[in-house]
Design brief:
It contains twelve helices and twelve strands. The protein is α/β, with parallel strands linked by helices. A six-stranded parallel β-sheet has the order 9-8-7-10-11-12, with helices on both faces. A four-stranded parallel β-sheet has the order 3-4-5-6, sandwiched between helices. Strands 1-2 form a two-stranded parallel sheet.
């Protein structure tokens, strides 16, 4: 989504490189963004090389002046093209710790854009914040105590959390692929996906979510009290380190998956019943948001190509 937001912001002709039959292809189709895709069966070098060959010939027909990537194996394949054909390469690091792909690619890039203050920032690094999608908000009467965001792939733990807390609070759950498995009740509304998640964020008193970079950045932008339940299965455990960083900045509470039945209701009560804590949390979130991230990134790219 940060890359999509950059494409929507710039008036330059842009191409999105990604996996076929994935969410990114669907989003690009809906937004009329040109999509160049490949199939990736696994993480083996032979599969990576095959994926690279799938996009190389397509990209050689395009007049590409720069490549920007946000890390991960999918981005790595597009970056191989940039390195091989000497296209200016720019990296976006969404998390508080540098990902494996970006760490490998850093020597080959012109600039690396950091969403948050990194532990070790080099001369190529610029702290820009994270680009956010265009936000449209409308008057609405459908309000909730708590919004639980399971994400597009869903999270069984967050679905369990939503059911657990709905005995005491009015809850909306974005369940993703678990949508059909969750039983609604008088306090629990369950939806599979929301095309305007920002409206749901705005209409909720408190949000419970994973600690993915894009989701947390959007919550901070909307400015709502947040409890992060980080996934403990991410590579390099980056969600845990994201949540830990945000909690240290007093921008959210962190609740570990294994402790949610002991901690989550206490944390909810603490946030909803303590106005001073809420106000301070929201003020600290604002300090983590750069409202000019898209402008800064795009102007820096143009200065360096």
């Amino acid at each position: 989504m940060p890359l999509i937001s950059l494409i929507e912001y710039t008036k330059e002709k842009s191409i999105y490189v990604g996996q076929y039959n994935n969410l990114e292809e669907k989003i690009c189709k809906n937004l009329n963004i040109e999509f160049v895709g490949f199939y990736l069966s696994d993480k083996k070098p032979t599969s990576i090389f095959k994926a690279y060959k799938q996009i190389k010939e397509k990209l050689l027909t395009k007049d590409i002046t720069a490549v920007i990537a946000s890390g991960g194996l999918v981005s790595f394949i597009a970056c191989l093209f940039a390195i091989r054909y000497k296209k200016p390469l720019f990296l976006l690091e969404e998390n508080v710790i540098l990902g494996s792909s970006n760490k490998i690619l850093r020597p080959f890039c012109k600039k690396i854009f950091y969403a948050y203050q990194p532990i070790n920032k080099d001369k190529k690094g610029i702290i820009t914040g994270l680009p956010i999608r265009n936000i449209n908000l409308y008057p609405s009467t459908n309000n909730y105590d708590i919004l639980v965001i399971g994400g597009s792939l869903g999270s069984k733990i967050l679905c369990d959390v939503a059911t657990y807390i709905s005995k005491d609070y009015k809850v909306c759950l974005i369940a993703g692929r678990y949508y059909k498995d969750i039983s609604k009740n008088k306090n629990l509304d369950v939806i599979e996906f929301s095309s305007n998640i920002f409206q749901l964020m705005k209409n909720s008193k408190l949000i419970i979510a994973r600690a993915g970079a894009s989701t947390t950045a959007e919550i901070f932008y909307i400015n709502k009290p947040l409890i992060c339940i980080p996934s403990m299965n991410t590579k390099k455990n980056h969600q845990y380190y994201n949540a830990q960083f945000f909690q240290q900045k007093k921008a959210c509470f962190m609740c570990l998956e294994k402790n949610y039945k002991n901690d989550i209701l206490k944390q909810i009560q603490q946030i909803l019943n303590n106005e001073a804590l809420r106000i301070n949390m929201l003020e600290m979130q604002k300090k983590l948001v750069n409202y000019n991230a898209k402008q800064t990134i795009m102007s820096t790219i143009k200065e360096n190509i």
